[in-house]
Amino acid sequence: MLEVVIPAYNAAPFLRETIESLAAQTRPADLVTIVDDRSTDGTGDLARALVADLSPRLAIRVLDNAGPQGPAAARNTALRASTADVIALMDSDDLAEPDHHRTLLDLIETAPDIVLGFGNSLVFRGVEVLIPDMHAKSGISGFPAEELGPDRLTLGERMFEVMLGAGMFSTSACAFRREAAREAGLFDETLRYSEDTDLFLRLTLLGRFAFARAIITRKRVHGTNLVGHSKLHFCRGTALALSRLADRAAAGDPVARHLSAPRRAALAEGLRRAMYGWLYAASWETPRVYREAAAAARHAGLGRMARDPKHLARLLIAPVWRPETR
Asked: Which residue in 232, 242, 292 sits closest to 272, CA to CA?
């Protein structure tokens, strides 16, 4: 059984088009779950109207987010209520190509130890294509991959190290085994950015990822989605995700016990890079923003990095001062 999970916050301008793209699949989903994330623009009413409009072409249910606002809790609301074997993720403003579901299911069904499958995406705004090939941009297309079958590839255990760089694939271009996600601990509901990378890293410890180079998703950029938000937020999210995985390993977490010595070394280096990126981005902001990054660096054992004179000097002379509130 395949279920598509869509967190939706003020998604009224795009939701119908997204759902129509799911109704046009060569292999339809068994269920589409839309989770209304406390929208104020009528998204919930629109979603409920789609239930009737698209029946019997597509089975849709609408849930209200049962946790804190944000995509992590919205997705977890659906995952906790799900009985599906495979969960495909879709953002409420993205579009699925007709073979989206079939491609992802074929990838996951390649072998029992495949816990996640993903495809390629393009990024667009209006009629303009901003990024024609996300795999090429992320660099994953340049990694030597093992062939699993026709148009199916894997990086094996190296996927963990590749994922440390973040942004390898779009959440709207992936599907995973629900039980593996539950074993990994689901999405971290305290993270609003990089919550997908956080879960995917834990999933790499439980099995292999398979991927296809075909473009199966068109990712939309517009004025109100998270893609357009500042680099600071994503640097912060990635650093926190890696720091928390390191904390899990130190505490003997059952999932983190799969971290081999080479993976632990890769995690330490990835955390160092991510924390430097957060401190750099924060040093162009306000002292309050920098203090949070510095405290996280100290917690991760990287306090010396927070005292880098270049960061501190930048903080004093930053030409652009953004509001304290975020």
From this structure: 242
